[in-house]
Amino acid sequence: MNLKVRLTTLSFLQFFVWGIWLISLGGYMFTSFNNPVDLDLGFKVGNTYGTMGWASLFMPALLGILADKYIRAEIVLGISHILGGFALYYASTVTNAADMYWAIFAVSCFYMPTIALSNSVSYSLLSKNNFDIQKSFAPIRVWGTVGFIVAEWAVDLLGWTQNSNQFYFAAVASVFTGLYCFTLPPVHTNKSTEKKSFATRLGLDAFQLFKSPMMAKFFLFAMFLGAALQITNMFGNPFLGDFGKIPEYADSFAVKHSNILISLSQISETLFILTIPFFLRRFGIKQVMLFSMIAWVLRFALFGVGNPGSGLTLLLLSMIVYGMAFDFFNISGSLFVDREARPEIRASAQGLFMLMTNGLGAILGGLFAGKIVDYFTDAAGTKDWQNIWFSFATYSLVIAVLFLVTFKYKHQPGQTADIKH
């Protein structure tokens, strides 16, 4: 089979597994673990999503070392997916929020490293076969987003968003993905005798970037904005599901097929990626990152004023602006780090960027968002979603204003035309 087709299949499966449960987990926990009413459940849901951040702090680095030096990367990738499948099966059996925390922590420990490992496998095999990585990888990677969307739709249409079948499904898909990884061409380990410190292997050298006040501010904003990334993953589905308690909206499309509606966010993401080169050339990296922060304000505010009836258009607009909110900071921020880091720590610097957003940021987001949801939940378990979303919008607005005022980075016309790669 053509190598690009095989790697495209890998990318599809990689994110298909995640898309099965990531968006619907919050709604499942609120439905399954809230009888009797648990007034701390929002915090517990946030904490559960935060396990992805904790796992991202150490597991990708540890398994990366293993794949670099001792066991071929595609084997490590396959084993991780298979073990993740067993963890997902365990998640299907738990009956309370405390056990779900540890189940998803186990899932995250095996899944989060596979994101970097699957990229590494693709890069290595494309390079080995003399493909231009920069031109070849983007069309391959976009099928990962397609896989995520297909998974969302499948779980929604099968009616599994509110029951444990989603975890059975994800477990089977994860094991299948692991077995598929074993069929990929070998990615040989690096037998170099060059001595590197353990700190270097973990990518800790990149922390020297904090010596620059500008980079220190950037990584701080990356962490705070990373906190916003998981909020709608955690609470978008429960928010739409709660409209089902209102007779006027109970049979609406947004309630019956909340996963499909939310999947428009990922579809928007694939489209906004295509606009980034234009925006970077026209406005520069700082402005593009600021656009992302403003888009987060709109994402949350539109949720606050929308509804499945007359306000459906507002919900749709929220899904559309998600693409700008997600892509414009993640991608332009990655390019900014690439530009500012020295070549010898470039890879580690990218790892640090991911640690601040998907690691510490996700942990912070889980704690912060869960507390906000619980604060606006009354004794009967009814949530004031409008104030919840407005609180998140205000948080994003404060970040945007602080970024505008404190982050100094002047755009030179034409500077970003070399978006390097």
Describe this structure in words.
There is one protein chain. With 421 residues, the chain is mainly alpha-helical. The protein folds into two domains: 1-189, MFS general substrate transporter like domains (Growth Hormone, Chain: A), CATH 1.20.1250; 200-421, Growth Hormone, Chain: A (Up-down Bundle), CATH 1.20.1250. Helices cover 74% and strands 0% of the residues. It is built from 17 helices and no strands. α3 (41-69) runs antiparallel to α16 (346-375). The radius of gyration is 21 Å and the shape is globular. The two termini are 28 Å apart.
CATH topology of the largest domain: Growth Hormone, Chain: A
Poorly predicted regions: 416-421
* Distance N to C terminus: 28 Å
Structural class, judged by helices and strands?
mainly alpha
Mean pLDDT: 88
Strand composition percent: under 5%
The CATH architecture name of the largest domain reads: Up-down Bundle
The major beta sheet can be summarized as: none
N to C succession of SSEs:
HHHHHHHHHHHHHHHHH
The radius of gyration is 21 Å
What's the helix count?
A: 17
| Cα shape | globular
Short recap of the structure:
This protein is mostly helical. It is 74% helix and 0% strand.
Write the layout of secondary structure elements.
Elements: H1 3-21, H2 25-32, H3 41-69, H4 73-91, H5 97-128, H6 133-157, H7 165-181, H8 198-201, H9 213-229, H10 231-242, H11 253-256, H12 258-273, H13 276-283, H14 285-305, H15 312-340, H16 346-375, H17 385-406
Helix pairs in contact: 1-5, 1-6, 1-7, 2-10, 3-4, 3-5, 3-16, 4-5, 4-7, 6-12, 9-16, 9-17, 12-15, 13-14, 14-15, 14-17, 15-16
